[in-house]
Design goal:
The protein has 14 helices and seven strands. By secondary structure, it is α/β, with parallel strands linked by helices. Helix 8 runs parallel beside helix 9 (261-291) and helix 11 (309-326) runs antiparallel to helix 12 (328-348).
């Protein structure tokens, strides 16, 4: 009996230290890039002396509630109207919505594929273009709203030589607790996986909208998009081609944030599946990228291998409490790790999201942790089907 007790105790200690090392890697990664995100460089590009021709694509699946604000913001650009075309790909929107859209200065494609996806919509739009004399393609979601100088600012960056760009997606609404948490989560991502990365010369992560690409490159690659994680697929193709992905911190695109727990569950389930799929694909090419010294690609594989932040925080919190009760001295390292993680998040969250209401929303974090854990067991086949995140009220 004593031997069994000793064995169990040793097993506990070994498991504890293995988990500590694994979670420390995640915390270390987040903390390093959160620290470098503290430097905000602002505008880094001179005004362009040439106006490129833009193609703006808006895939819209059942987005009748939000599409008109998005279209209006694009059509009201200060950029010369003869220098950009807007294409809306309407998937299962109502006849009334389509009729109103057809009266605007845009090209409207109505589709109803058996398996809807943004990848299908983007491919359809490129395949059915009347001409290909574009320089830059911009991809927006149907709930996105952009400022009047949006295309003009992107033009400056592409004139300076960029081929791929992620603009700064920011919350359009903060009307519910879930919307606030979603906004905080996105700004943490902007700090760590975008601004923190480009500040030390690594590529930014993409996020699915507010993206701009060299038109020739994109039109040659869009046919290879197959999954619901098209932004991750684009990252793989860009980094394999050694194309640097820039992040424009000062160019905002306003995005409708999720407002209910079920929307969070569905959205994160799709994101998790896309991350896992991308990790599997990335590992296949990892030996070749190591040989080619492709640091951007190696970093991306490491990034995809990390557990989601809310799961990392939840696991560290649970293990900290367990160790506090059963091995107080052993819990000290967990308390330190938890404090470092909170410090990393504190550096990454912008001041405008730090207030009494946002702090109260943190009470929902245990629920979100449980939803994310459930998602880990429901990833099978998700990348092959379309999971719509409902926006608007």
């Amino acid at each position: 009996m004593l031997e069994i007790s000793k064995t169990m105790k040793e097993l506990f200690y070994y498991t504890d230290y293995i988990l500590f090392i694994l979670l420390s890697i995640s915390v270390g990664y987040l903390t390093i890039f959160s620290f470098f995100s503290m430097v905000k460089k602002g505008r880094r590009y001179p005004k362009a002396i040439k106006k490129f021709k833009f193609l703006v694509l808006i895939p819209a699946y059942k987005e009748d509630n939000v599409i008109f604000d998005s279209v209006k913001s694009v059509l009201e650009q200060e950029y010369p109207s003869d220098k950009f075309d807007l294409v809306v790909i309407s998937d299962r929107m109502t006849d009334h919505t389509n009729s109103l859209l057809s009266q605007e200065r845009l090209t409207l494609h109505k589709i109803s594929p058996e398996n809807s996806s943004k990848a299908y919509a983007l491919n359809f739009a490129i395949t059915n273009l009347k001409h290909f004399n574009y320089d830059v393609v911009v991809i927006l979601d149907a709930d996105n709203v952009v400022p009047k100088n949006y295309l003009d600012d992107i033009n400056d960056i592409f004139y300076s030589g960029s081929k791929a760009l992620q603009t700064h997606r920011i919350a359009k609404n903060l009307n519910t607790d879930m919307a606030i948490l979603d906004a905080i989560s996105e700004e943490i991502n902007n700090s760590i996986f975008r601004r923190g990365h480009v500040n030390i010369g690594l590529s930014s992560a993409l996020i699915g909208s507010g993206m701009a690409f060299d038109f020739k490159w994109f039109s040659s690659k869009v046919k290879y998009l197959k999954t619901s994680g098209e932004d991750k697929e684009l990252e793989i193709m860009l980094l394999k081609d050694c194309v640097y992905i820039d992040f424009a911190d000062y160019i905002y695109v306003y995005d409708e944030k999720i407002q209910k727990e079920d929307a969070f569950y569905n959205q994160r389930r799709r994101w998790l599946a896309a991350q896992f799929y991308s990790l599997v694909q990335g590992i296949k090419d990892l030996p070749q990228t190591i040989m080619n010294n492709n640091i951007d690609y190696i970093d991306k594989v490491i990034q995809w291998a990390l557990l989601p932040r809310i799961i990392v925080m939840g696991l560290i919190g649970i293990l900290t409490l367990l160790n506090t009760f059963f091995d107080f001295y052993g819990s000290i390292k967990w308390w330190v790790l938890l404090m470092i993680l909170f410090f990393a998040f504190a550096m990454a969250i912008p001041d405008y999201l730090v207030n009494k209401r946002s702090i109260r929303t943190f009470l929902k974090i245990p629920l979100l942790f449980m939803l994310m854990v459930l998602n880990l067991f429901r990833l099978r086949g998700v990348t092959k089907k379309f999971i719509h995140t409902e926006k608007g009220i």
